[in-house]
Amino acid sequence: MKPRTIGELKESGYQPETVKAEMERNLIRAMEAGQELFPGIVGYDFTVTPQVVNAILSHHDMVFLGEKGQAKTRMMRALSRFLDEHIPVIAGCQINDNPYDPICLSCKRQIEKHGDIVEIEWLPRDRRYGERLSPGTKIADLIGDLDPAKVAGGAPLASEDALHFGLIPRMNRGVFAINELPDLEYLIQVSLFNILEERDIQIRGYPIRFPMDVLLVFSANPEEYSRSGKIITQLKDRIGAEIRTHYPLTREAGLKIVDQEAKVAVGEGYHLDAPDFMRDIVEQITIEARKSSHVNQRSGVSARLSITNYETLVANARRRAITLRENVVTPRISDLNYLYTSSQGKIELDPFREESLTETQAIERIIERAVRAVFLERTAGMDMDPVVEAIIGEVRIETGDMIPSADYKDIISAAPSIWEPVHTLGGDKSDQTRAACVEFLLEGLYLTGRLNRKKIGEMATYRGK
């Protein structure tokens, strides 16, 4: 049974330590045990994670710099796993006072009056992490303010009894995160100086000071963080570590995030069979968007683009399966027509782009570049000449998202030379995968300039040049 009073705590031999020392100890223990330090965060093992480890070992406050969708908030929240499962605090204390060294007046009075029989409680790890989004935040929210009700009740203005504690004091002996630091008002940035350097707070200019034991972490867009005037220089100087995040460095890492985050249940009686090339296209769309001259790269393109696009792709394939009574849900190229709904709003056009395109036109180009890139990669070494030669003269091949998968047998009959590359891509597994492979090959040949294509609505007709 855990100790319930200060006296019992002393008898147990418990020794308190600062939150940063506590996190360092638990981090070292996790590293020595070979544990994964940040479960669920993909692609940071050799880049971001070492920086965070160094910051914890150095007892540094830190700021995560990165564009949207780079797991900054998730990394900050994951820091709490290096806190002890429970720590003792004086029962009822608003600022989680250390039973051996209280800092608030109320707890000091209790100990002065009752000594070692003062009750303690055990604060769980999840209550020692707090965060706040910067826009709209006031000093009273973070630091605290005078409580009019307490003042009206007779509490002296210069007394702790008149105070209402803000979020940071309430996270004493814990971790506090502030998202979007550049949006924090200058006065609040100034109020953070003492916490970062002197580790104490002052409220309303009254001579009331509290030594804070807290790890402060921040997030920011690097462009805004470095822009002159957005962040007070002295505040930057007091933050121990600037940690740069990034998007997945490989397509495989991006797809691992999609697999982890996307919600793609297809329902009872249906089976999802997504071809690898379609999954590659989904992630390649995001990759192409991140390097497109039409997209504002300062804003970034979140991993949420891949996640929602994959969910939409599967949803349309599922709609087809339900409508046509097919039990295999297989995304194909014609389903890409529905990705505009999940892509819009996640891609911010560059206001200074040379060519004036609408958002829909920009997304269309990005999708086409993605399909072309995956096609060239997947068909490298294949002889596509027989396929092109078979689609000549009056031969027309029509595709669409609501054409039954079994009907694609007729396409192979009209151009039998397409069967070999379809087979190589794995199209002999089912009618659905065969349809997906046929559409992929036809669209790839069009995008590489070897076939013509005419689109009417969601239908596409391919013919020779």
What layout of secondary structure does this protein have?
Blueprint: H1 6-12, H2 19-32, H3 48-57, E1 62-65, H4 72-78, E2 86-90, H5 105-114, E3 120-124, E4 129-133, H6 139-142, E5 144-146, H7 148-152, E6 163-165, H8 167-170, E7 174-179, H9 186-197, E8 200-202, E9 209-211, E10 214-220, H10 222-226, H11 233-238, E11 241-244, H12 251-261, E12 271-272, H13 276-291, H14 304-324, E13 328-329, H15 340-343, H16 359-378, H17 385-390, E14 397-400, H18 408-414, H19 419-424, H20 431-447, E15 452-456, E16 459-463
Parallel strand pairs: 1-10, 1-11, 4-7, 7-10, 12-13
Antiparallel strand pairs: 2-3, 5-6, 8-9, 14-16, 15-16
Helix pairs in contact: 12-13, 12-14, 13-14, 13-16, 16-20, 18-20
Explain this structure.
- The protein is an alpha/beta fold.
- The strands form 6 sheets. It has a 5-stranded parallel sheet. The chain has a 3-stranded antiparallel sheet with strand order 14-16-15. A two-stranded antiparallel sheet has the order 2-3.
- β8 and β9 form a beta hairpin.
- The longest helix has 21 residues.
- The mean pLDDT is 92.
- State the end-to-end CA separation: 82 Å
Spans of at least 5 consecutive residues whose pLDDT stays below 50 are: none
Pairing-aware structural class of the strands and helices? alpha/beta
Number of separate strands: 16
The radius of gyration over CA amounts to: 30 Å
Strand arrangement, major sheet: 4-7-10-1-11
CATH third-tier fold name of the largest domain: Rossmann fold
The percentage helix is 40-55%
Total number of helices: 20
CATH architectural name of the largest domain: 3-Layer(aba) Sandwich
Question: For this structure, what is the CATH homologous superfamily of the largest domain?
Answer: P-loop containing nucleotide triphosphate hydrolases
